[in-house]
Amino acid sequence: MLSYFYPLQLTRWNCAGQLWKKQLLGKRYSSGAVNIKTVEHSPFWSRSLKQLLGSHQFSDKNVIAGESTVRDALEQMEKVDMSIVAVTGTQNDWLGIFSERDLIRLIARGGNINNMYVRDALSKKEGVATCFLNQRVSDLGKIFTTQNVQNIVVMKESSLKNTIHDLAGLITSRELAQYFHSMEPAVVEEFEHVLVKDMLDHNKSKVHERLNEQSILAVELSSQVKDAVHLMAKYGVGCVMVTSDHSKGALHPYPDVIGMFTEREYIRNCLLKGKDKDNCRVGDVMQSNMALVTPEFSAAQFIRLFADSHVRYLPVFSTSPEDAQDSTSMCLGLFSIKDIFFLLFSSG
Fold it and tell me: Which residues form the CBS domain (predicted)?
């Protein structure tokens, strides 16, 4: 549990009869208009990518040969706790990247991880977002915001983007959150007084559009894993919410929400354990221990929670610590780290 949060434990019995706990983590700040320094003068966004990568620059652990199987790639990603690897050809040429999202698309097409080569399941380099090592963190923000991508490849200065040796790093929004978390208090101060609800108001039309498209998909507890995977592939998302059977859906009061099912749960709890998605229930492999975020969270808290808990998504509920057991509490959506940086960068 994070020391700077004040937890309120909410407990309920799930439909399997087991005690299920939610932690509502929050700290109140006075609400106000969004007040973020301009990107050009922000001590966070103006840092160089060399500073962001630090000692985590590109290495052999980030690379897999194209003739390896998809299972080999997943096992390597799991071992080093990465959601993405770069794929190389026989002559050290850079072919592209393979990510958890590529896996979901492959499985939805009926692919087999044991006999499918990574080179046949990757995202080709021509479609991969890139930037150079001498650029700034703000350039990552622009790419995440304008290109709606999950991953960015950082190239060495003046590279031709042809060989694996031209790569300097692989960046996901998770790495961006961990970098944020490691910075001195003075740098992150600009995000301490920005509330999630302020960002929602500031970007109302864009946020609602994103939530309607990406953040409210749900499946029931007894659904088959294959149905959840096909739903994620259809809408291009990495997570769906899990509700109790015969519920009114994820947008109804929180007692209906049981947990989350993500790409990571599918890989760890299903694929790598040899479970058949056609005969496995979502409830058997989902993430049930959720941390709940409220609109009163500050942006800095949100990002710290991502960095500390190693989760990829967090649900936002329209409630506060004082009235958390109010049955009118509604799920506003499911946010990724990228969504928060999208809002922060757009606000700046």
Answer: 286-348
So what's the pLDDT on residue 86? 96
> Which residues are paired to 44 by β-bridges?
none
3-state secondary structure of 90: coil
pLDDT classification of 39: cutoffs 50, 70, 90: low
SS3 content of the chain, % helix, strand, coil (to 5): 40, 25, 35
Give the rounded percent of residues in the chain with a pLDDT score beyond 90.
22
Q: In angstroms, rounded to a whole number, what is the distance separating the alpha carbons of residues 251 and 226?
A: 23
Supply the pLDDT for residue 55: 60
Torsion of CA 142, 148, 153, 155, to 10 degrees: -40
* Domains in the chain: boundaries: 8-39+186-347, 45-182
Q: Tell me which long-range contacts 183-186 makes (C-beta under 8 A, separation of at least 24).
A: 183/44, 186/43
What is the distance between the alpha carbons of residues 286 and 262, in angstroms, rounded to a whole number?
Answer: 7
Residue 54 gets the label, from left (phi > 0), alpha (psi -120 to 50) or beta, of left
Average pLDDT (28-56) is 64
Please indicate whether residue 321 or residue 127 has the higher confidence score (pLDDT).
Answer: 127
Residue 186 exposed, middle or buried by CB count within 10 Å (0-12, 13-18, 19+): exposed
CATH class of 45-182: alpha beta
Compute the distance between CA of residue 122 and CA of residue 320 in angstroms, rounded to an integer: 43
Task: Please report where in the chains the tokens 């929004």 appear, as a residue.
Answer: 173
Per-residue pLDDT of 7-20, as tens digits, reads 233 322 233 223 23
* Eight-class DSSP state of 164: G
Domain 8-39+186-347 class, CATH top level: alpha beta
The DSSP secondary structure of 202-219, one letter per residue, reads HTHHHHHHHIIIII--EE
Buried b (16+ CB within 10 A) or exposed e, 65-101: bbebbbbbbbbbbeeeebbbbbbbeeeeebbbbbbbb
Cβ-contact 181, 299 below 8 angstroms: no
CA atoms of 63 and 312, how far apart (whole Å)? 22
